[in-house]
Amino acid sequence: xxxxxxxxxxxxxxxxWKHTWVSKEKISRHLPMAVIASExxxxxEHNGFDFKEIEKAMEENxxxxxxxxxxxxxxxxxxxxxxxWPASSWLRKxxxxxxxxxxxxxxSKERIMEVYLNSIEMGKGIYGAEAVAKEHFHKKAGxxxxxxxxxxxxxxxxxxxx
Length: 162
Prior knowledge:
Mean pLDDT: 83
Structural class: mainly alpha
Distance between the termini: 18 Å
Strand order of the largest sheet: 1-2
Low-confidence stretches: none
Helix content: 40-55%
Oligomer: single chain
């Protein structure tokens, strides 16, 4: 949020920052399921590092020009969203490992999902489930339908574009 706000200031844009934290009980039960289905379908099974996906990405990268990364919610996305910066680097990857270990040791999977759903960028200046629900669907996060949750989850690879 801070990096995107600084970018808005640097580019002379009006600051847009929409964010309201809500408890997991106030988020549609369909949103975590949609996010898991689209982002990390083994979220409940791994300890932050999905070794099956890592192995698959390494194998596919042997024949690809553009390198694929195996991304897990707690291993890549949550640390990058909450503690790090968006640009990829080996330093950031190393810090992601550190934060992933701490997150997985200290938080339950439910807490990880709650923090992720309240923190992720979901459009220009839009952060978290409550903000995206109000901005795009004119309702609270708890009122999102399965279809709306699927649309939100589908946009997560690049929410500023989609």
